[in-house]
Design a protein that fits this description.
The chain is α+β, with helices and mostly antiparallel strands. About 30% of the residues lie in helices and about 25% in strands. It has 2 domains: about 140 residues, Fructose-1,6-Bisphosphatase, subunit A, domain 1 (Fructose-1,6-Bisphosphatase, Chain A, domain 1, 2-Layer Sandwich); about 110 residues, D-Maltodextrin-Binding Protein, domain 2 (3-Layer(aba) Sandwich), CATH 3.40.190. The radius of gyration is 17 Å and the shape is globular. The N and C termini lie far apart (about 35 Å).
Protein backbone atom coordinates (compact mmCIF):
# COMPACT_ATOMS: atom_id res chain seq x y z
CA UNK A 1 0.00 0.00 0.00
CA UNK A 2 1.22 3.49 -0.88
CA UNK A 3 2.38 5.88 1.82
CA UNK A 4 -0.44 8.23 2.85
CA UNK A 5 1.76 11.30 2.48
CA UNK A 6 2.35 10.32 -1.13
CA UNK A 7 -1.36 9.70 -1.61
CA UNK A 8 -2.08 13.15 -0.18
CA UNK A 9 0.31 14.79 -2.63
CA UNK A 10 -1.59 13.17 -5.50
CA UNK A 11 -4.96 14.15 -4.02
CA UNK A 12 -3.84 17.77 -3.75
CA UNK A 13 -2.56 17.67 -7.33
CA UNK A 14 -5.91 16.32 -8.52
CA UNK A 15 -7.94 18.84 -6.51
CA UNK A 16 -5.93 21.81 -7.75
CA UNK A 17 -6.06 20.60 -11.35
CA UNK A 18 -9.82 20.22 -11.08
CA UNK A 19 -10.01 23.67 -9.53
CA UNK A 20 -8.30 25.19 -12.57
CA UNK A 21 -10.91 23.68 -14.88
CA UNK A 22 -13.75 24.83 -12.63
CA UNK A 23 -12.40 28.39 -12.48
CA UNK A 24 -12.34 28.55 -16.27
CA UNK A 25 -16.15 28.74 -15.97
CA UNK A 26 -16.75 30.51 -12.63
CA UNK A 27 -17.69 34.20 -12.57
CA UNK A 28 -17.70 35.76 -9.11
CA UNK A 29 -21.08 37.37 -8.43
CA UNK A 30 -22.43 36.52 -11.88
CA UNK A 31 -25.01 33.86 -12.71
CA UNK A 32 -23.69 31.65 -15.51
CA UNK A 33 -26.70 29.39 -16.04
CA UNK A 34 -26.59 29.74 -19.82
CA UNK A 35 -22.84 29.44 -20.33
CA UNK A 36 -22.47 26.53 -17.88
CA UNK A 37 -24.75 24.23 -19.91
CA UNK A 38 -26.81 23.45 -16.80
CA UNK A 39 -28.81 20.25 -16.82
CA UNK A 40 -30.98 18.85 -14.04
CA UNK A 41 -30.13 15.35 -12.80
CA UNK A 42 -33.13 15.54 -10.48
CA UNK A 43 -35.07 18.05 -8.36
CA UNK A 44 -32.71 20.76 -7.08
CA UNK A 45 -29.71 18.80 -8.44
CA UNK A 46 -27.96 20.64 -11.30
CA UNK A 47 -25.11 19.36 -13.44
CA UNK A 48 -22.74 21.58 -15.41
CA UNK A 49 -19.89 21.20 -17.85
CA UNK A 50 -17.53 22.17 -15.02
CA UNK A 51 -18.69 19.19 -12.89
CA UNK A 52 -17.88 16.80 -15.71
CA UNK A 53 -14.54 18.38 -16.58
CA UNK A 54 -13.43 18.33 -12.94
CA UNK A 55 -14.48 14.70 -12.57
CA UNK A 56 -12.55 13.72 -15.69
CA UNK A 57 -9.41 15.43 -14.39
CA UNK A 58 -9.58 13.90 -10.92
CA UNK A 59 -10.33 10.41 -12.19
CA UNK A 60 -7.44 10.50 -14.65
CA UNK A 61 -4.91 11.55 -11.99
CA UNK A 62 -6.10 9.31 -9.15
CA UNK A 63 -6.66 6.17 -11.18
CA UNK A 64 -3.30 6.56 -12.89
CA UNK A 65 -1.69 6.74 -9.44
CA UNK A 66 -3.64 3.82 -7.90
CA UNK A 67 -5.49 1.84 -10.62
CA UNK A 68 -6.41 -0.95 -8.20
CA UNK A 69 -8.35 1.27 -5.78
CA UNK A 70 -12.14 1.35 -5.94
CA UNK A 71 -13.94 4.42 -7.27
CA UNK A 72 -17.12 6.22 -6.21
CA UNK A 73 -17.94 9.63 -7.64
CA UNK A 74 -21.09 11.68 -8.04
CA UNK A 75 -20.44 12.08 -11.76
CA UNK A 76 -19.48 8.49 -12.63
CA UNK A 77 -21.71 5.43 -13.01
CA UNK A 78 -21.47 3.41 -9.81
CA UNK A 79 -20.13 -0.14 -10.07
CA UNK A 80 -20.46 -2.47 -7.08
CA UNK A 81 -17.02 -3.90 -7.78
CA UNK A 82 -15.89 -1.14 -5.44
CA UNK A 83 -17.39 -3.08 -2.51
CA UNK A 84 -14.64 -5.69 -2.90
CA UNK A 85 -11.85 -3.13 -2.60
CA UNK A 86 -10.05 -2.47 0.67
CA UNK A 87 -9.33 1.08 -0.43
CA UNK A 88 -11.30 3.40 -2.66
CA UNK A 89 -11.54 7.01 -3.74
CA UNK A 90 -14.76 8.85 -2.91
CA UNK A 91 -15.05 12.02 -4.97
CA UNK A 92 -17.37 14.94 -5.46
CA UNK A 93 -15.72 16.97 -8.22
CA UNK A 94 -17.83 20.04 -7.48
CA UNK A 95 -19.95 20.08 -4.33
CA UNK A 96 -22.09 23.20 -4.30
CA UNK A 97 -22.94 23.37 -8.00
CA UNK A 98 -25.87 25.72 -7.35
CA UNK A 99 -23.55 28.24 -5.67
CA UNK A 100 -21.00 27.81 -8.47
CA UNK A 101 -23.65 28.65 -11.08
CA UNK A 102 -24.85 31.67 -9.09
CA UNK A 103 -21.34 33.09 -8.72
CA UNK A 104 -21.16 32.43 -4.97
CA UNK A 105 -17.69 31.20 -3.85
CA UNK A 106 -19.04 28.50 -1.54
CA UNK A 107 -18.26 25.23 -3.29
CA UNK A 108 -15.49 22.66 -3.15
CA UNK A 109 -13.65 19.82 -4.80
CA UNK A 110 -13.92 16.92 -2.35
CA UNK A 111 -11.63 13.86 -2.42
CA UNK A 112 -11.39 11.15 0.24
CA UNK A 113 -9.36 7.97 0.43
CA UNK A 114 -11.34 5.35 2.35
CA UNK A 115 -10.03 2.11 3.80
CA UNK A 116 -12.38 -0.58 5.12
CA UNK A 117 -15.23 1.91 5.43
CA UNK A 118 -13.41 4.80 7.10
CA UNK A 119 -11.68 7.84 5.58
CA UNK A 120 -7.91 7.80 6.07
CA UNK A 121 -6.99 10.82 3.94
CA UNK A 122 -9.01 13.85 2.85
CA UNK A 123 -8.49 16.79 0.54
CA UNK A 124 -11.06 19.54 0.08
CA UNK A 125 -10.36 22.56 -2.10
CA UNK A 126 -12.31 25.79 -2.58
CA UNK A 127 -10.83 27.24 -5.80
CA UNK A 128 -12.16 30.84 -5.74
CA UNK A 129 -10.96 31.39 -2.17
CA UNK A 130 -7.82 29.25 -2.65
CA UNK A 131 -8.60 27.35 0.55
CA UNK A 132 -7.00 23.90 0.68
CA UNK A 133 -8.08 21.66 3.56
CA UNK A 134 -6.27 18.37 4.19
CA UNK A 135 -6.30 15.62 6.80
CA UNK A 136 -4.58 12.29 7.34
CA UNK A 137 -5.94 9.92 9.97
CA UNK A 138 -4.04 10.39 13.21
CA UNK A 139 -2.15 13.47 11.97
CA UNK A 140 -4.68 16.27 12.37
CA UNK A 141 -6.33 18.67 9.93
CA UNK A 142 -4.77 21.58 8.08
CA UNK A 143 -5.82 24.60 6.06
CA UNK A 144 -3.23 25.78 3.54
CA UNK A 145 -0.64 23.81 5.47
CA UNK A 146 -1.44 25.24 8.92
CA UNK A 147 -3.04 23.15 11.70
CA UNK A 148 -6.70 23.83 12.40
CA UNK A 149 -9.16 22.70 15.06
CA UNK A 150 -12.82 23.08 15.88
CA UNK A 151 -14.23 25.70 18.23
CA UNK A 152 -14.76 25.08 21.94
CA UNK A 153 -18.30 26.46 22.25
CA UNK A 154 -20.26 24.39 24.78
CA UNK A 155 -23.83 25.73 24.61
CA UNK A 156 -26.21 25.53 21.66
CA UNK A 157 -27.80 28.92 22.31
CA UNK A 158 -24.37 30.54 22.02
CA UNK A 159 -23.37 28.55 18.94
CA UNK A 160 -23.11 29.36 15.25
CA UNK A 161 -24.72 26.79 12.98
CA UNK A 162 -24.00 26.51 9.26
CA UNK A 163 -27.34 26.19 7.52
CA UNK A 164 -27.98 25.05 3.96
CA UNK A 165 -29.00 27.77 1.52
CA UNK A 166 -31.46 25.55 -0.36
CA UNK A 167 -32.88 24.05 2.85
CA UNK A 168 -33.29 27.57 4.26
CA UNK A 169 -35.19 28.64 1.15
CA UNK A 170 -37.52 25.65 1.61
CA UNK A 171 -38.20 26.70 5.22
CA UNK A 172 -36.51 23.69 6.81
CA UNK A 173 -34.47 25.90 9.18
CA UNK A 174 -37.36 28.06 10.39
CA UNK A 175 -37.83 26.07 13.65
CA UNK A 176 -34.25 26.81 14.72
CA UNK A 177 -33.83 30.50 13.89
CA UNK A 178 -34.45 31.62 17.49
CA UNK A 179 -32.39 28.84 19.12
CA UNK A 180 -28.90 29.57 17.78
CA UNK A 181 -27.20 31.78 15.22
CA UNK A 182 -27.65 30.56 11.64
CA UNK A 183 -25.00 31.22 9.01
CA UNK A 184 -26.25 30.30 5.54
CA UNK A 185 -23.50 28.54 3.59
CA UNK A 186 -23.45 26.51 0.37
CA UNK A 187 -22.05 22.98 -0.06
CA UNK A 188 -22.18 20.46 2.76
CA UNK A 189 -18.56 19.53 2.00
CA UNK A 190 -17.47 23.14 2.38
CA UNK A 191 -19.54 23.52 5.56
CA UNK A 192 -17.61 20.65 7.12
CA UNK A 193 -14.31 22.32 6.23
CA UNK A 194 -15.48 25.63 7.72
CA UNK A 195 -16.54 23.77 10.86
CA UNK A 196 -13.18 21.99 11.07
CA UNK A 197 -11.39 25.34 10.92
CA UNK A 198 -13.34 26.68 13.92
CA UNK A 199 -15.26 29.38 12.04
CA UNK A 200 -18.60 27.86 13.11
CA UNK A 201 -19.66 25.43 15.81
CA UNK A 202 -21.88 22.85 14.11
CA UNK A 203 -24.03 21.90 11.14
CA UNK A 204 -26.54 19.22 10.35
CA UNK A 205 -28.87 17.99 7.67
CA UNK A 206 -31.90 15.73 7.99
CA UNK A 207 -32.27 15.75 4.20
CA UNK A 208 -30.57 12.81 2.45
CA UNK A 209 -27.02 13.28 1.22
CA UNK A 210 -24.51 10.96 -0.40
CA UNK A 211 -21.19 9.51 0.67
CA UNK A 212 -19.31 11.76 -1.75
CA UNK A 213 -20.80 14.85 -0.07
CA UNK A 214 -19.46 13.84 3.32
CA UNK A 215 -16.43 11.54 3.16
CA UNK A 216 -13.60 14.11 3.01
CA UNK A 217 -15.29 16.54 5.40
CA UNK A 218 -15.95 13.78 7.92
CA UNK A 219 -12.23 13.16 8.38
CA UNK A 220 -11.45 16.90 8.40
CA UNK A 221 -13.85 17.45 11.29
CA UNK A 222 -12.73 14.39 13.26
CA UNK A 223 -9.05 15.18 12.89
CA UNK A 224 -9.81 18.76 14.04
CA UNK A 225 -11.25 17.30 17.29
CA UNK A 226 -14.89 17.46 16.22
CA UNK A 227 -17.50 14.73 15.84
CA UNK A 228 -19.64 13.48 12.94
CA UNK A 229 -22.52 10.98 13.26
CA UNK A 230 -25.96 10.28 11.92
CA UNK A 231 -29.07 11.42 13.78
CA UNK A 232 -28.95 8.30 15.97
CA UNK A 233 -25.42 9.06 17.10
CA UNK A 234 -23.77 6.30 15.06
CA UNK A 235 -20.53 6.89 13.18
CA UNK A 236 -20.97 7.01 9.41
CA UNK A 237 -19.21 4.24 7.50
CA UNK A 238 -18.52 4.49 3.81
CA UNK A 239 -18.43 2.25 0.73
CA UNK A 240 -21.92 0.93 1.40
CA UNK A 241 -23.99 -0.76 -1.36
CA UNK A 242 -26.16 2.36 -1.45
CA UNK A 243 -24.19 5.59 -0.95
CA UNK A 244 -27.30 7.41 0.29
CA UNK A 245 -27.11 8.87 3.83
CA UNK A 246 -30.32 9.74 5.65
CA UNK A 247 -28.83 12.31 8.05
CA UNK A 248 -25.56 13.95 9.07
CA UNK A 249 -24.71 15.80 12.29
CA UNK A 250 -21.31 17.46 12.64
CA UNK A 251 -20.15 19.47 15.63
CA UNK A 252 -17.09 20.72 17.44
CA UNK A 253 -17.51 17.68 19.70
CA UNK A 254 -18.53 19.75 22.72
CA UNK A 255 -22.03 20.32 21.33
CA UNK A 256 -22.70 16.82 20.03
CA UNK A 257 -24.69 15.39 22.98
CA UNK A 258 -26.90 18.49 23.15
CA UNK A 259 -27.55 18.45 19.40
CA UNK A 260 -28.44 14.76 19.45
CA UNK A 261 -30.96 15.44 22.21
CA UNK A 262 -32.41 18.45 20.38
CA UNK A 263 -32.95 16.49 17.17
CA UNK A 264 -34.00 13.15 18.68
CA UNK A 265 -37.71 13.68 18.05
CA UNK A 266 -37.35 15.66 14.80
CA UNK A 267 -38.45 13.64 11.75
CA UNK A 268 -36.19 13.15 8.76
CA UNK A 269 -36.89 15.26 5.70
CA UNK A 270 -38.16 13.91 2.40
CA UNK A 271 -35.73 12.47 -0.09
CA UNK A 272 -35.81 14.97 -2.95
CA UNK A 273 -34.53 12.67 -5.69
Amino acid sequence: MENLDTSMDIMVQAARAAGIRIMNHFRHGIDISREAQVKQKGPDNPLTKADLEANETIQHILQHFAPDYGWLSEETTDHHDRLKQQRLWIVDPLDGTKEFVQGIPEFAVSIALVEEGLPIAACLYNPPLNELFTAIAGKGSRKNGQPIQTSRTTQLHRAVCLSSRSETQRGEWDPYKDEFTLMTTGSIAYKLAVLASGRADFTFTLTPKNEWDIAAGELLVREAHGQVTDKDGSRITFNQPSPRLRSVLATNGQLHPALLRRLAAVPLNQDLR
